[in-house]
Design a protein that fits this description.
5-stranded parallel β-sheet, globular, binds flavin-adenine dinucleotide
């Protein structure tokens, strides 16, 4: 039960932007629902990213359902502005969020789902898993072989260059995080970025791009590259597996700043990283910009497909009635894990969650 002995209509697990967008629609439908979130306050996932981070999506696309982002439509909010907006959003729409609750287990019992955390138990007819796809860092196993003298951080732990030691820095991974962090650390330390970009947005990032290029990018990400189109289905596995194309910081910016771009790191020899051609890099700090993996280890394997999402369409689990997913990478569209994409997916899910009355009669039958 949810502490009051009642069964909820819907339990949303995760109160980042995906969970809050979902909450907006559940509230509009007057459902009895609750959002459980591991962090201490709304917006924490953004607050804890590196200090200089700004979102790459213009403010006109950063609003959640029902409330445009309060800034110049062509500007790019800072990560703290986005966090403050999420906090405001949860209050403005009076969304019921229990913070500081990391769900430890989720399973199905007869006609309902049961979630447990901190010795408490919640029961619900429907569950939406909105725990984000950037919560669990991915670091290659060979990182463990680096000499203890090398300071190692994952991009999720990196805040600013003051955390680093004096001397050369290796940034591993040439996605957007790697490029942006590599450029930042190059202002105070010799820096190398290892990896191969998976393409670059062919326009300079800024207000002009926000006005003319982003509408096209948004259209492609929401409507063309989806699991509903042949091209989307074809490119989905590659887009899921690789980093996004470089958006703000391009390889020419790195070159201009004197950052050396080197091939992928193949392993560690005698405590230092080595490249595929055998070159050993003597560095004093390493920042792993190697991405994240989805972590569903807390969900009963019977509800999953070998640790991954079960068979689903646009977030609706096809073989588990009442189980939904929101915010995962390429859930339905290339944009599914971005602000515009997850708002649309939340609207779709809200319309698919069984109506309480129908469900009630099904249960009675
Ligand atoms: P999160 O914001 O990660 O929220 C998930 C929430 O679930 C967290 O509060 C977490 O504490 C909670 N949680 C996790 N596990 C549990 C559990 N077991 N029980 C309870 N709670 C749990 N997107 C854009 O649209 N524009 C951008 O410019 C942009 N820039 C990005 C920059 C970076 C560096 C990264 C990493 C991502 C960026 N994204 C961007 C992508 C995406 O919008 C964000 O990652 C966004 O935070 C995802 O929202 P979310 O709600 O799905 O997940």
């Amino acid at each position: 039960t949810n502490g009051t002995g009642t069964v909820l209509d819907t339990l949303v697990i995760g109160g980042g932007q995906a969970g809050l967008a979902m909450g907006y629609f559940l509230k509009a439908q007057k459902r009895k629902f609750l959002i459980l979130d591991a962090s201490q306050r709304a917006g924490e996932a953004w607050r804890q990213r590196w200090d200089s981070l700004r979102v790459f999506t213009p403010a006109k696309y950063d609003g959640l359902p029902g409330a445009p982002f309060p800034a110049d439509r062509l500007s790019f909010p800072t990560k703290d502005e986005l966090a403050d907006y999420l906090e405001w959003y949860a209050e403005e729409f009076e969304l019921p969020v229990n913070h500081g609750v990391r769900v430890e287990r989720l399973w199905r019992e007869a006609d309902r789902y049961v979630a447990t955390a901190n010795g408490h138990r919640w029961e619900a007819r429907n569950v939406v898993v909105a725990t984000g796809s950037t919560q669990t860092p991915e670091v290659p196993a060979f990182a463990a072989g680096l000499a203890p003298s090398v300071k190692q951080l994952h991009s999720s732990q990196y805040r600013n260059p003051q955390q680093l030691q004096a001397g050369p820095v290796l940034v591993v991974g040439l996605g957007n995080s790697g490029a942006e962090i590599g450029l930042e650390v190059s202002r105070t330390r010799p820096s190398l970025v290892a990896g191969k970009p998976t393409g670059e947005m062919p326009v300079k990032h800024g207000k002009t791009a926000a006005r003319y290029a982003f509408p096209i990018v948004r259209f492609l990400g929401l409507h063309v590259l989806t699991l509903g189109t042949p091209i989307g289905r074809k490119v989905a596995p590659a887009l899921k597996a690789h980093a996004e194309p470089l958006i703000r910081t391009k390889t020419k910016d790195l070159a201009a700043a004197g950052v050396r771009v080197v091939p992928r790191v193949a392993g560690v020899v005698d405590g230092m990283p080595v490249l595929a051609d055998g070159t050993r890099l003597e560095v004093s700090s390493v920042i792993w910009c190697t991405g994240f993996r989805e972590d569903f280890s807390w969900i009963d394997p019977a509800l999953l497909d070998g640790g991954a999402m079960p068979r689903q369409w646009r977030g609706v689990a096809l073989d588990c009635r009442g189980l939904f997913f929101l915010g995962q990478r390429f859930l339905y569209a290339e944009a599914s894990d971005t602000l515009p994409g997850l708002s649309r997916d939340a609207r779709y899910l809200a319309a698919k969650i069984p109506a309480p009355a129908v469900l009630g009669s099904a249960v009675a039958a």
